[in-house]
Amino acid sequence: MRAVRRFTVRASLPEPLAGLGALATNLRWTWHPPTRDLFASMDAELFNKIRDPLRMLTALPPERLEELAKDEDFLRRTREAAAGLERYLTEPRWYQRRTDEGLPQAVAYFSMEFGVTEALPNYSGGLGVLAGDHLKAASDLGVPMVGVGLLYRSGYFRQGLSLDGWQVEHYPVIDPNAFPLELVTEGGRPVLVEVAMPGGRDLRAQMWRARVGRIPLLLLDTDIEANDEDLRSVTDRLYGGDADHRIRQEILAGIGGFRAVRKFCELTGHPQPKVFHTNEGHAGFLGLERAREIIQSDGLAFDEALPAVRAGTVFTTHTPVSAGIDRFPVDLVQRYFSDGRLVPDVDVRRVLQLGAEDNPGLFNMAHMGLRLAQRANGVSKLHGRVTRRMFSRLWPGFDDAEVPIASITNGVHGPTWVARELSALLGGNHEEFGHEGRTPDSSLRDGVTDEQLWALRRELREKLVGEVRRRVRAAWMQRGASALELGWTDRVFDPDVLTVGFARRVPTYKRLTLMLRDPDRLRALLLDEKRPIQIVIGGKSHPADENGKQLIQQIVRFVDDPAVRHRIVFLPDYDMSMARYLYRGCDVWLNNPVRTLEACGTSGMKSALNGGLNLSIKDGWWDECYDGSNGWAIPTADGVTDPLRRDDLEAAALYDLLGQQIAPLYYDTGEDGVPTGWLAMVWHTLETLGPRVQASRMVREYVDSGYLPASRMVAAATDNGHQGALSLADYRTKLEVAWPRVRIFDAELQYDHTERLVVGTEVTIRARIDLAGLEPSEVDIQAVVGQVGDGDELADSVLVPMVPDGIGAFAATLRLPRAGSVGYTVRVLPKHPLLASPAELARVVLA
């Protein structure tokens, strides 16, 4: 029989154990080992099985709880842990110690998924885990953030394999009451947010709160009786459904999420955010709701409210290809916005302009995100360059380098991912490792020998081997094998063999099967008698991605071969729990995407923090962090247009690195059995990459280059009755009229013709310019001098301001900066104190 309804009954704790409730519901326990140790001491076997303090309290027999309530030692440790959590939540931290004027009192961070812990399965992959690490690092630093997303009643999916190796998806039913979540209520009733739907209907969502250290994470849930049946399913699955389903989710995430933040802050006294950070474009509709709020509360027009909206928005894109951007049919967007109920006083025509792209039939969420944000960034230096090129058409007349999209390289939350054994060996406790940027450095190495580090690396590898054997056996049982035929799983993997890890989502560009380009060479590497390697693989393909599923099937069929299955495995249902074993136990982390298609890729960072060495294409973060001594860069077949030929060449390079460099170095041990050359690279990785890959570094960069300047710009735009925003709106209106008539005439280079032109020669560039009624103070006039190639395109340019030099004339004097073929031009740009970049308005007049 099946239940018609399900619900969760939480444990009733004896009064002396009341402090355990706060410890179990605040997700700080996910990166605080002493708290986990406290719960493990209640029943070690049970805790090792479920790894979730809240479920632990529910699963323990009442008599055990009564016994613990009389255990003075346990009560003392509970009081100490509760007091420690309270100090963590209230003490001043890095952010509170800052004295910068204008630091925002709160920042709202929007993401479609949050990977905080496997105990709250609300994520699919790297984007969600990055969002979870962002919140954790913000908590550690004291950044006053509010996370906003959706609660998916079936989460992403659990992965299994059929007998022939095909991915099988299973969607478990989630009861929010069974998770570390609290329903946000007022007067005992759930707080609801509403967004209008077509046909006069309303979509309602209740609000669940997760406590991520100091950070409240608000998750909206539409599975309530107040909704029509089709609307109850809006938050059913992550990244599921058709375009209509997706736009409902994104409307709820953006518009409903903004309203949820406002209500939550009103109820709790949390400061109202003035800075809003969107992690990808999914929640971009929130900018429309912010404009609606300003229009209705302050009586501004849309164009007058827009500067204030843009000033307070930070937009992060993780997409390196235009095909990865969310697009909706224009008629679908019109269906949701045309009746004026969703965002009153915002004309649907203005909405459509924000998402306009080359294809007039499509609405582009990334374009809207960029047009509604004054600050935007990619997630690695290389990705920043790729993104500026990808979106350059939004800023015509500007070089790619001038497109106003910066880069902040992703980071990972050290205390979550680093093995506590490693941080203990290096002289600090696990909480301090990575906290506020503190990482292993040369001073922490003092007193730690190569032998100790090598022994620890083997210990972590041995734990991985045990987990691999357990999961391989379970996977075969799930595929229909009998326990009697699985004795071989006890011999899978060897703790003394070089171990390579590859685990991530499985879109085609990540090339899961690159290692299979030459199966015979791979087998030779796996089965080498003197220097074998073993490979552990994990990853999920999106349920609708048939090509990705085929890649998984190819891998599974290869690893099923009895000749190699003890050396290479595919572990189904890759999640955060499995990932920790892999990051900590693998010696080498493999990453081989098609170059420039990996925006950042953080899995290799987590391996590096545990002493793993990266073997990767120079893409994403590895492009800027590889230094020749912290791992290996797989050569890329640049210029080869045939993708099969490219894959063959890069796979051959991969085999060569594994067989000729990596394995020989790993097995080159002295009489003590320690590979000193290998460990030299491990130490170098810990010392140099440690500080660079931390999420604490990432969040500090967001504060300094995103949140703080955004907060100051919001104040400039909104103070004194939105005087700044009104000024910028008036200026833009003036530009609309004048800009098409701005002209540059007679740009010429003047110098003393009795002298030869050499580097350092003083020259003057003069031009007559008709500003069409604009004042010189309202524009930025520049002379641009740089090297020129065959197409007369300027490169390595120097920008020199031009000043008035008579009526309608402007001049700039400079010394020639370089030798060779040099050219110049003159340009006019808008200028206003509320512009963050000269390119912001996408206007430029060139000579």
TrEMBL record:
<comment type="similarity">
    <text>Belongs to the glycogen phosphorylase family.</text>
</comment>
<dbReference type="InterPro" id="IPR011834">
    <property type="entry name" value="Agluc_phsphrylas"/>
</dbReference>
<feature type="modified residue" description="N6-(pyridoxal phosphate)lysine">
    <location>
        <position position="606"/>
    </location>
</feature>
<dbReference type="GO" id="GO:0005975">
    <property type="term" value="P:carbohydrate metabolic process"/>
</dbReference>
<keyword id="KW-0119">Carbohydrate metabolism</keyword>
<keyword id="KW-0663">Pyridoxal phosphate</keyword>
<keyword id="KW-0021">Allosteric enzyme</keyword>
<dbReference type="GO" id="GO:0008184">
    <property type="term" value="F:glycogen phosphorylase activity"/>
</dbReference>
<dbReference type="InterPro" id="IPR052182">
    <property type="entry name" value="Glycogen/Maltodextrin_Phosph"/>
</dbReference>
<comment type="function">
    <text>Phosphorylase is an important allosteric enzyme in carbohydrate metabolism. Enzymes from different sources differ in their regulatory mechanisms and in their natural substrates. However, all known phosphorylases share catalytic and structural properties.</text>
</comment>
<dbReference type="InterPro" id="IPR024517">
    <property type="entry name" value="Glycogen_phosphorylase_DUF3417"/>
</dbReference>
<dbReference type="GO" id="GO:0030170">
    <property type="term" value="F:pyridoxal phosphate binding"/>
</dbReference>
<dbReference type="InterPro" id="IPR000811">
    <property type="entry name" value="Glyco_trans_35"/>
</dbReference>
<protein>
    <recommendedName>
        <fullName>glycogen phosphorylase</fullName>
        <ecNumber>2.4.1.1</ecNumber>
    </recommendedName>
</protein>
<dbReference type="Pfam" id="PF00343">
    <property type="entry name" value="Phosphorylase"/>
</dbReference>
<dbReference type="InterPro" id="IPR035090">
    <property type="entry name" value="Pyridoxal_P_attach_site"/>
</dbReference>
<dbReference type="Pfam" id="PF11897">
    <property type="entry name" value="DUF3417"/>
</dbReference>
<keyword id="KW-0328">Glycosyltransferase</keyword>
<feature type="domain" description="DUF3417">
    <location>
        <begin position="13"/>
        <end position="120"/>
    </location>
</feature>
<keyword id="KW-0808">Transferase</keyword>
